[in-house]
Write a structure and sequence with these properties.
With about 290 residues, the chain is α/β, with parallel strands linked by helices. The chain has 2 domains: about 60 residues; about 210 residues, Glycoside hydrolase/deacetylase (TIM Barrel), CATH 3.20.20.370. The protein has 10 helices and 9 strands. Strands 1, 2, 3, 4, 5, 6, 7, 8 and 9 form a 9-stranded parallel β-sheet that branches. The radius of gyration is 21 Å and the shape is globular. Bound molecules: zinc ion (ZN). Zinc ion (ZN) binds next to loops.
Length: about 290
Amino acid sequence: MFIDLFVRGLIIMIFVSGSVVISYYTTRLMAFLVPFARISEIFLWSGTVVFSAALLMGIAYYYVYHGFGLQSDIVRRKPSAGNKVVMTFDDGPSRDYTPQILKILAEKGVRATFFLVGSHVERYPEVAKQIVDAGHEVGNHTYGHITVPNSPPPQLAAQIMRTNLVILQNAGVYPQYLRPPRGLYDSRMRRIAKLLGQELVLWSLSSQDWHSRATKASITRRVVERAAGGDIILFHDSGSLLSSEGASRKPTVDALGPIIDGLRARGLEIVALQDFMDYPSEQVRRLSG
Ligand SMILES: [Zn+2]
């Protein structure tokens, strides 16, 4: 535990100090190359701060969407899946939005995957059952939408196992997939997933529907324009947990029909995660050629 925290702290310190050093010398170089920007203390340090912040944000963004190193156990996208894409919904079930989403998916003949929060399944068991009865897949999104890397080991295991049990008891299926809240996982979670026979599934395209300024138009445009074959697309069907408790997911509901039509018009086929898993992951493909 202590060693784990120490190593993690060390890695973060290396990243921060590394980016500060790089930024400091980049700023010095800029001041040298641009004749009118004479080196002043303020210029040097503000430049360093701005560059380091940008660099660290870039690293964080890369980590969330791509990870570091070989991660064949983590599914983000399947580049070899041709024109197929997958739709996933996090944080539910919700009494308000999940039934509306299920209705649209049924009308359009789309199978999706719902990553359920255990405490929400206990609150709305009938909605969780409705998801499974409609032929959709469900995954585990922890019991209380925890931040995985911060949780003590007993709590992490309990959060995942309790949710598996709650889903099994209320919806009658054992969740095949596991998705850490906000995409923040660690090596412990990877080991637990393996032990429990679950696949760690993240995403490659976020609809950004959690954003407080997201509208039907912005969500639709973002997803339809950016989606490519092999993508796992992230939506949210509950307004709790993200941004604020009780945020409106109406833009997501309104955008769903146009998004499905738009993806299909672009020649993309929307499939269930199950039909996607057999394709090799990006990392495996990279290794083999
Ligand atoms: Zn979530």
